[in-house]
Every structure is written in structure tokens, then in C-alpha cells.
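Review form for a predicted model. The reviewer records the input and the model, then writes brief findings.
Reviewer: anonymous (R2)
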Amino acid sequence: MWTKLVICFGLYVCVVSGSTTYYGQAGEGITLKCHYQSSEVSWKYGSISIIRVAKSGRVTKGTAFADRLKLSGSNLIISNLKSEDAGTFTCIATDRKKGQTSSDMTLQVVKVSVSVSPASPLLQSSAATLTCHADGSPDKVAWKHNNQDLTAETGKTVTLGSVKGSHDGTWQCLVYYGETPFEASLDIDVIGLKEHSNVTVKQGGDAVLPCSLSKPDLGSLRVAGGGWTQLPPAAADAPRLPSLDTSNAQELRWNSDGINTARVTISKERLHTDFGITLMKVQPSQAGQYQCSVELKDRGTLTTTVNLDVTGGGGGGSGKKPGTSNNTVSVSVSPASPLLQSSAATLTCDADGSPDKVAWKHKNNSFEGKTVTLDSVEGSHRGTWKCLVYYGETQLQASMDIDVIAYPEWSPPSWLGLNMWIWVGVAVGNMVVIVGTVVLIWSSRRKIRMRQPEIPMTFADDTTVIGLIQDGRYWQNKRNKMWTKLFFFWGLHVVVCLASESKKYYGQAGKDITLKCHGQANMFTWKHGGVHIITLDKAGRPTKGRVEIVDRIKLSGTDIIISNLKTEDKGTFTCITTDRNKRQSSSDMTLQVFKVSVSVSPASPLLQSSAATLTCHADEFGSQKKVAWKHNNKDKTDETGKTVTIDSVEGSHGGTWQCLVTYGETQFEASLGIDVIGLKEHSNVTVKQGGDAVLPCSLSKPDLGSLRVAGGGWTQLPPAAADAPRLPSLDTSNAQDLCWNADGINTARVTISEGKLHTDFGITLMKVQPSQAGQYQCSVQFKDRGTLTTTVNLQVTGGAKGGGGSFAKPKRVGSIGSPGSSPSWLGLNMWIWVGVAGGSVVLIALIVAVVLVHRNNRRRKMRTRKLRSVRKPLTANDYCQCNR
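Model under review:
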């Protein structure tokens, strides 16, 4: 009995305190598992029913979580977790005998994020601190940088005493609650001044002093000052060096006041990241160290030092235009690119001053001199050409891309599927056959007339014919044989003409294609436009040519497979096979390579209600091309042109658009994924007088891609009450951190988020009065793209103060760090310990009662046994009497 009681007590404690705890990350999904599987299941959040499945399979949802819940069997899936979702969930399963079993589980919702102070981009050599924000008290915090573990960093913060370029990249924070890890990441850019070698210039020459930022995108950084100075000792006649003029925040320029332009040349254009200058006609007294400084607003100053060496001799420049980001080296080609194949062209490299050396580079080829003359342009000339200019040890370069195209291919007309030239060949061959036939007939008849009617004739086949010739039977047989031979020759001629037509292949750039050789042999050779590309000898050893295409060729028997097709691969391919008797046969085939791609303007993602145009880019090829469109694998029969114009973009336009281009019987395909972003639609908001109303406004997708929010906010549409509170607008002064502009906002009447905003721009009106009822408009403006708007209708009804809005969630319990949560001990809530204590008292009372009853029963049994053991005294009646 005692053993059973102990087991019962232990099982009771386990059941009371064994609630499963789940950890989920805000914004992610989670699955809560029900320990009991049944066809009739209901889930509760606290005491609120959130979803129920009846025996018939009918699903009933409550108001809370309704749009984020899904069942998988008896398990509950919650998507897009929020911090207010934390609390206790109960799964109640009903079996066939109407018995109910339940299991409780606790959900903790964790928010994990990473921030850096000051905000990215960071200045080189400055100090910065990365902070991992995580709810509650995580068991472990770890860091990664560019996917490499940082074993030395195990706390919530990482301090960078002096930021370096190597600190650039992605920082990841991994937070562990028990064995469950959660991750957040942050991209950090590091900006500094590029390092430059010493500048050496000849006396009287021009010296470029370089100074440029390491990255073109400054993000939220703003240049607030800076300039050039010569470090002491400096010559008395040294020219004044320029400083930055920051009076116009939109246009950063040099301050040219007091600058001698004959000795110092500066750019007159708008400056961005290049702050180089040029010293003209440098003298030995100007040699020394020059310092360039760039001051960034509220962040610090970057400096770099350039050492100028002046040598004796004639003048020569160091290679850059004064103070601009454009090189003094420029390249051009005449005529302009694209060049026609087999035409002539000249490439020219223009460089300031008198460079020591000028060279050209193209792929693995080098050319000396300022000009390169191409007498006959070929496909191999396609690509990037670089001009390298040397001023002493200083090297400057400029490059350009050249494209080479062939003359447009003329496609001869066809009839009944055959090329015009085939029909011309057949016609000429037929004329020859007809003329030959006429000549033979005329000659044979002439011979018949010349024969004597009764003269015996002997022929080459030893046949002697004697008799009259007028019957004509012999010569009729001869004529029949002649006609048979002529018709056979004509038919053979037609077959040869038809067989001479080379097979055509159509391939798509970037894809693979297989060219089939019609002959089968142990030895064969493939050529491309007469150029050898690959040969297979008797022993099966392949020998490849020295052209670029051979690196993309693979053999399959006698066929070749060309991978990653390029436009220059088009042309004629010839397969030459050799049999055992060394007899050769060849087959020609023509390959056409087409480029097919899809683009959308403006770029994806698209704004809802805006206009957009999709374009299918495909090479032209006669009149054989047909274009069709598909959207999410469904045919768009009304769209048959190169472009699809969408006057008003809708959410249904999102997805994959496919362009199908058909050349003859060959079809090519290109696709493009398009996202559509709008504001979610919300129903009316109804709230009791004196309650709090949540005005929702959120974007339909969390990933904005290239879109940048440039403004927006809330306004109340007229008529509005005179005492209506001021509504917030978006503060976009910091491009990296989008937040609300709290200036003039009465926080007692309007509650806004103090954190960084991304896609949710909802606000809360506190203690709403009937005068505040009406329409409220939320607008989100995107840079260079347009504005999204949504309207929310607020209705205020009478009632006691303190009523909540229709969007208010039921009160949550047990959320991490939430105010009003109950105290805990050893990780368990206080009410659990109260329940355990109460249950224990009841259990102890039952044990005492059982013990008392047991002892009482034992005493009663002992008394009964004792009474039974006592014998009665003998009496006379107990003896037998015998009457003998």
C-alpha cells in the first residue's frame, strides 16, 4: 500500500509540473504537438478557445489567432509569431467513449535582433559596439562573422576598439534557450580612405595627389568638411591647397577661394567619394608629405598621407585628371561598337602628357602602342580591351567592351518546306535531263531511218535480227530501256538534291545542345566553320583543337554535346567519319543560337496600383518567330506580343511570368519572378468610448527588395474634431533606421512604436471619444516609385470606459519579461507551486485517513479472532448418556 501511495504521489507531481515548454522566434512559425491524437480536438489559449475540430471534420476558429492558425492532425501550427502570443496552450482530445484528455504546454516567444552603435557604415579606426538583443535570460550567446565562429565572443556585446576593413561583412548572433538556437544577423560596411603608394613626378610635371573613399555608397554618412594640407616643413612659396565647401548639403564642392588655378587644379564638378587634386608644374621645393582629411558629420575624421617625390628632368603627369574621378586615360574604337565581322577597325588610347609606355591587353594577347588596327574583325576580337598607361612606376588603365556581329543572315524563301536553292537545283537538273532525253530520242530515230528494211543486223550482244524493220518491235524495246534509265537518273538526281540540304539546329544561349553525326565509325572528326575542334582516332583517343568552344564540348558516341551555348557558337558544323576501308563521308549541320530573356520596368518588386511593362527580349530570325506568355504556368492567350503592359498592378499579378519564343518547331523559354507589394486590407475598427483603438497599417510582404521608404504617415480625413490629436509621420532622415517622428505627438492620446520600423506602421489611439470617429488614412511613400494608401474606418460606441478595440488581443500571461507576470521559483510559476502544495495537503489527508481506517479495521479483526478463540464451559447437557 505504501508503495502504491508513493508512486501515486510522484505521478501526481510529474503531471502537475510537467508542462512542455516551447520556444519560438518572433516572425517565425512553430508547431505545438498534442500528446493525444483524436478526430475530435480543441485548442485553448489560456481559457480562450482558439480552434476546434468536430467529429465530422468541421473546423471552428475563434477570433484570436484566426488568420495565423493551421492544424496538422491534432498538432497546432502558428505562423508569424508575435511576442503577445506567449502563454499557456491546452490541447483537449475526446475519445470514442466521450472521455476527455488534455495536455498543457507553455509557449515562450523570443525576439532576437542585432544592432551596431554607431549605425553602419562604420568609419575605419573608429570604435563600435555590436549588441545582440534577446528576451529573457538566454543560456548561451555565440557570435559569427562571415559564417566563421568567433570563439572569443560569448556575451551579448562585441566591442571593436578600432574598426578595420576586415570587420566588413555579415555578423550573426546565435542565442540558445536550452538546446534551441535562434539567430539574427546584421550587415556592416566599413568605410575608409584608400591606401596609395608614393607619387613620383619629374620636375615641371603635373602630380596627381589621390584621395578617395573605399566605398561609393556612404549610406547615412554625410561629409561635413575636410581638405588638403602640406605637412611641415613646407616651402614659403607653396601654393594654397583647397578645402571642402559644405555650405550646400546637397552638392559637395571644392572651395576655390584663394586657389591659384595655374598651380593647383581642382574639379569644378560635384564631389562624392573622390577628393584628389593635381599640382601643376611641380618643383623640387614642393616635395614632401601631403595630408587629405575627410570629416563626416557626427562620426569623426578620416585622414591619409601621400608622399610626393620630385625628380629632375622633363615634365610628365601621374595619370589622373585634376580632382576628378575620370582617368586622363580614355579609349575609343572607330567605327563604334558593335563591329561587323570581316570589317576593319581601329582602337585608340588617349593619355595626357608623355607616358613612358602604352600597352593594350585583350584576353591573353598584348599589343604595344597607342593604337591597335584590326584589318579584319573576327569573333575572337569580342570582349574587354584594356589600355595600360605607365608614368614611371604609376600605372593607369581604361577599358571598353567590344561586341562583334556578323552580317544579318539572309534566309532564302521556301516552298513546301524546301529551300529555294533546292528547287533551283532540281529545275536545272531537270532541264539537263530533258535536253539529254530529247537528244537521245532524236539520235535514235535518225538511226532507225538510216537502216535498210531487209538487211540483217548484228549487234554487240551477238543478237541477229532478220526481218522487216517496219514493225519496230526491236527499237521499241530499246527506247523503253532508254526511258527507264532516264527516269531512274532523274529520280536519283532529285534524291541527291534533297539529301544535300544540311540539317538545322536551334539552341538557346546558356543552355546545352546535342549535334548528331549521321555516320557511325570508329574514326571521326568534327569541324566548326572549317576549323578543327575534335578528332577521335582508332584507339579512341580524342584530340582537341585550340579554339574556345572545345572546353565546352563533350562526346557521346559520334555526337557532340555543347554546353553553355554562346552566340558566337552559331555557324556550320561538319562531321567527317572514316570507315575500316578508309572511305570518308561527311554531314553538315547549321546551328542557330538565340538569346531569350524577360525584364520588367520598373524593377520588381512592383507597387500595387502602379503601371508596369514586361518585355521579352529575343533575337530576330526572319518571320518564323512567335511569342507567347504564361503566368504561373497558365497560358495568357490575350498576350502574343513582345511586351505585356499592366496598367494597374494587382496582387494577382505576382508570381512567375514566362515568355515562350517559337522558331519554326523549336520553342525557347525564359522566366522572371515578380513580387507585388501593397498595404493589407483591414475591416472597420470598432471600439467603446474610452477604450484604446488600434489602427492597422502594414505592407503585404516583409521583403521590400530594392524599394526604400521615403516618407508617409497617418492623417484623419475631414471632417476632423478641433481637439483631435496630432498623428505621427515617418522620420526618414536616417536611411538605415526608419522610425516615427515623435515631435508634437501627445503620447497620452497616441501610442507609437519607439523601435525601428520595417513593414508595420500601425498606431494606437488611447481613450477614444466619439468625436474621434471617422476615416483615418495611412500612406507609405517609396523613393522614385510612388505612394501606397489605405483607409481605416473608426467607429466609437457608447459604454463603460476601458473597453478595448476590435483589434486588441486578450491579455497574455507568461510572456518573457512582460509586466504583471507571476513570480517563479526553480523555473516554475508560483501558481504551479500553489497547486502542488494544495494537492499535497489533500494527498496527505487522504493518506492519514487511509491509515486510520486501516488501523481500525485491523483492531476489529483482532477482536473478532479473540472472541472466537475463547471456549464455552462444559455443562451436563454437553455429555452423552448411554442407556444400557
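Findings: Helices lie at 2-17, 420-450, 473-499, 830-869.
Further findings: The CA atoms of residues 411 and 622 lie 7 Å apart.
Recommendation: see findings above.
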